[in-house]
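Standup notes
- DV: blocked on the single-chain target, sequence here:
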Amino acid sequence: MLPTIVSRCQVFNFRTLSVQAIVQHLGIVADAESISIDEEALTAIARLSDGGLRDALQLLGQVSLLDEDITANHVMEIAGGVTETELMSILQAISTNNTFNLLQVARLLVDSGKTPKLILSNLLQTYRDLLIIKSAPKEQSLLTGCVSYAQLKVLANHWNFETLNLSLAELQKAENYLRYTVNAAVWLEVCLLNLMPSLFPVSATKTLTAKPVHDGKLLPTVGVYTTNKVKCLNSQFWCLSPPM
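- DV (later): unblocked, structure below
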């Protein structure tokens, strides 16, 4: 637009609304329309709307068509995201080092239409919230993921601060790999397996070094493993590294 026209206009700079403001307004609308929805579901709607009240009201209208009490899981299902129940299944499998359940849940999520990028993004938010729980357990307003404070508080007991930092680094690395690989589902599984605490306890970690093969060539390693764990993943997935 030409400066001469702009100089004759009144300019308004609109800011996005806070989660608390959107939740408060949605609560008023829900009461007026007799919509049965809990506080966690309203918070989930507010976070998904990215500060836009119109998007929040549209999503509230969609979930209001359900013939039951609306929860955060309903909101995530309609919005196409990963539900709290699904994230809890992943986190519980990771914290208990249950490889079979972890891979099974990951495969079910991918088969249901959830992209590996979406799954990792939700996990990244959840691990970030776990770090906040460990460092500032009373600051519930800082949480941004869809897993509730009560659930996070229980899960936080399974990790220490350093392990959570290593997990966040692993998630960030996996997100970078997804940009280049055509085997996104495989990299998702590798990343989830590398998040298991038994693979990198801080007191007993050992970074694997590449071993020479055939005429001095080196096989790259995948990550950090303990000496008492089977290291077959390193040889199975080295060839999936992104192009340099």
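- Follow-up: The chain has two domains: 19-79, 84-200.
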